[in-house]
Amino acid sequence: MTEEASTMSEKELKNKVNELRTQISHNDRELKSIYKELKLHRTNMDDLKAKRDELNSKVRALVAKAREAKSKRDAFNAKISSLKNSRNEIEDKKRQYSTEINELKSKRDDLNNLSKGSVETLSKAYVADLDVFVNADIPLNHEIDLFERLVTMKERLDAAFDANKVHQKLVEAYESSKDVFETHVDVGGEIHELAEQSQKYHLEMIDLYKQVDEIRKDADLAHSQITAKFAVTAPIRERIDPLKAKISQLREELDVYLEKLNDINLEKDEKKQEEHLVVAKEKLDKNARLSLEDLKVLMEKGNLKF
């Protein structure tokens, strides 16, 4: 570029300078136009970002409230579950005791039906018959009948003893179950009240999450618009750096030609000063009238001293 400039005439240099300045001016205008366009997009984008951020802030606040409502609902549900479990445990114990007592009653009654008498009565009868069987002189057929009766009596007596044992277990079961059966568990009203509170917070939570969904849709829409604007402005932004580089290159090139043109102007000025000096010296030699410019040239060149 420097070699090319050194071979160019003043006219060619001026034309080149004007050409480069025109190109720089054109690129500057294009760059300003890009910045202006980006500024318009940026203004809209800032509005969209502010809107999106505000909506997201509302979403966070509503989600916090919804979680609080859910926590309260779950707390009420936990109380309901605890009350139901306590009630069910007591009811289960009642059923277990009822089953045990009914089974013992049934077993005792079956043994009583088999014994058909108390231990005391059957024992006396058995002892009396046994005494007769062992000690009395009775006919053989009567002895056989008595033996069969003793066997039967022994079975009845055993059943009576077993019935007493079962009855004792039955009494013990009644004693053990007394506290359970006397426990009156009426938690239906409390459960109902808790359920109403639980439902209240459940509905509140559902409503809040519905609001969250609606607001989040608007926030997502704003974000998608921001993304779309970034996509639109990306090709515009990509033109900036190449334009800056081009302008910088043109300015560097312009500086070279301006420097060369400046050198030519300096040479021309120097030549004019030499010519002016010759004229001024002639005037000085002839004692002719000197102008201020003549005096200035003579003093700068050292031809005139005061």
Structural notes for this entry:
This protein is mainly alpha-helical and 306 residues long. It has two domains: 2-238, no CATH class; 239-306, no CATH class. The protein has helices at residues 2-6, 10-115, 119-135, 140-182, 188-238, 240-285, 292-300. 91% of the residues lie in helices and 0% in strands. It is built from seven helices and no strands.
Layout of helices and strands:
Elements: H1 2-6, H2 10-115, H3 119-135, H4 140-182, H5 188-238, H6 240-285, H7 292-300
Helix pairs in contact: 2-4, 2-5, 2-6, 3-4, 6-7
End-to-end Cα distance, whole Å, is 48 Å
Strand content: under 5%
| Overall pLDDT metric | 83
Outline type:
rod-shaped
**Count of folded domains:** 2
The tally of beta strands, per DSSP, is: 0
Q: What level of helicity do the residues show? A: over 70%
User: What is the subunit arrangement here?
Assistant: single chain
User: Helices and strands: which structural class?
Assistant: mainly alpha
Largest sheet: none
Low-confidence stretches: none
Radius of gyration from CA coordinates: 61 Å
